[in-house]
TrEMBL record:
Name of this protein: Cytochrome P450
Source organism per UniProt: Strongylocentrotus purpuratus (Purple sea urchin)
Pfam families from the UniProt entry: p450
Signal peptide region: 1-26
Residues that bind heme: 439
PANTHER family referenced in this protein's UniProt entry, alphabetically: CYTOCHROME P450 307A1-RELATED, HEME-BINDING MONOOXYGENASE FAMILY
Keyword Transmembrane set for record: no
Molecular-function GO term, any one: heme binding
Essential cofactor(s): heme
Superkingdom per UniProt: Eukaryota
Keyword annotations of the record: Heme, Iron, Metal-binding, Monooxygenase, Oxidoreductase, Signal
Lineage: Eukaryota, Metazoa, Echinodermata, Eleutherozoa, Echinozoa
Entry's family note: Belongs to the cytochrome P450 family.
Amino acid sequence: MHLTCTVVKVVMVVGMLMVMTPNSDALSGKTPPGPGLLGSFTQLKRVVSDFFRSRSAAEMISEKEGGLYQLNLGLSKICFINSRGFRDEAFLEKYHLFSDRGVESNKKQLPEELMQWRGTIRDNGAASEEARAFVNSTLKETSYLRTTVETQIEEAIAFFDDELTGAIPSDLVVPKMIFREHVLDVMTRIAFDTAGHRNTISGQWQFQKFFEDVDALSNSVLFQPGFISTVLPNTKVDDYETNLVGVAKYLKERAEEAIYTNRETSLVQRYSDFFLKRESSIAQPEDGWRLMYDFFTAGVNTVPEVITWDIYYLASDLDLQDKIRQEMKNFGTDVTYDDRTSLPRTMSFLTEVHRLRPVATLGIPHAASADGTIGGYAIDKETLIIPNHWAMHNDPADWQSDPQVFDATRFLKLNGNDLTFDSDKARIVTPFSVGPRSCPGQEVAAGPSF
Ligand code: HEM
Ligand SMILES: *[C@@H]1O[C@H](CO)[C@@H](O)[C@H](O)[C@H]1NC(C)=O
């Protein structure tokens, strides 16, 4: 077994050396370093085989020298950003150039009859600005988070507690499934202000079918037609269509119901109110479900994955588990989200999980809306820009101890005699990315996973 692995590795390394001829004009300092046209197609196969979520793809790309690495696929170009400096230049300083999602030529590939069912995640320009303005006034707004979202999350946690207590051991074998149901419940409460419940006769989770559709969808969301399928040979369009329409119809119905019964604390009702006042020519008051579509697909797999890693590391280190339990015990009363700053060990531990196991290893692709530069390199209009969070979190220059080792104390520092959380160091850890197009669900995600 070991031998085969080594053989495969050697073959791969040799293969890679062969295709690593540089982009033709990289030598004149114009395009970012990369393997050139022929090499790009060869490498793409490996990057795509376990695309975007893949740590091995991220590692492979980060091995290449320099902060940028570009695959040149003829008309399509994919530029990976491996360093924080270049990432900040693109997503903060030059966000107006590098905050688009899909590019126009890709978008057109979505069949006409499906256009009405899509979410907002690929919107660019004014449409995405509008969605962001709404998010800024809700999911990014402290008082809304405190009063509404926190209550909804607490209710979901109480419900989750009951479910766990009543669970039969075989249900607990796949913890990630249980976390997923929980997160789905949290999001249903936030979006529609309705509680999840089980069917008393079948015992089935109320939104089981929906959940399965979302699950399939979020696994394939990056492979959706018209997103990067120009470079992906075997996108499963049929499955994707079924899931997309299934999820969209379900959300649209729930949204109509929430608005019809005037559930004021539901996010879709807020959306409706927001755009009634704003009189936008783009976002209509009844479009809230499109945004919910993105929230569900983006949230249902990510948060449970983080919680699963949290549990994994706690389970594999009893000493750590004790220390964290002790810290919470010492704190006294029921720990809430607001108390997190007084729990340095817990915060350091959670940050370390985010650092070493960023869920969106290679983020969600951005696209260049016009010709521009990053780090002095020319980036053509419509180039996909992919931030390599894994590489940024593992840059040896940032860490004293080996970045590849899990160290739950990495973000602790002594302040006099007090152990405190090193929030400056934690700022390097950016699993939600940065800038105006960064994750709108960051604060929501922090709720259940804290
Ligand atoms: C630990 C959990 C999560 C992680 C690590 C995460 C990470 C990310 C990242 C890296 C992006 C891409 C940002 C960029 O392109 O610059 C993103 C986008 C997004 N996330 Fe999250 N996310 C998480 C949970 C959630 C949750 C719970 C929600 C919904 C409430 C959510 C909703 C979204 C949406 C809608 C986008 C697309 C934003 C846009 O295109 O403008 N995410 N997320
Ligand atoms: C939303 O808030 C962020 C952070 O304050 C800001 O950078 C962005 O421009 C805002 N977006 C809109 C559309 O208001």
